[in-house]
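<instruction>
Derive structure tokens from the sequence
<data>
Labelled lines for chain and fold:
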Amino acid sequence: MSPPSPLKQTSVGAAWTAWAADGSSSAGSEFLERVSSWIEGTSAQLLRAKWRPGSQRPTSAELEERLRHHLEVVAQAGLATYPESLEHARQGLIDEIAGGAVPPQDNPRVATRPRGRRLIT
């Protein structure tokens, strides 16, 4: 029987704390592995946005790499908890891609008239 993986023994919070404390690549790799589903899901969510015509839409892999980069920047600063780090990384990527993605308030809603008969009174 093989020994249990250290990854399974370390919580995501502990992995973040270790990475933010010492900045080691092994601690960073462990944290990034622990949040890989979040990275993939966040990338997919951001790709669903409408993109401006003519802007180059990034690939999922490119967005995932940028999220990892933003997490590394936050870890190096060492001033955030792991949930805060996720939000900082997500917002950092949103700010980075804002030129191509259409913000929700820029999506014009077509005003429609109510359907059905108008009653004349």
Q: What stands out?
A: Residues 10-101 form one domain. Confidence is low (pLDDT under 50) at residues 104-119. The CA atoms of residues 6 and 30 lie 9 Å apart. The longest helix spans residues 60-77.
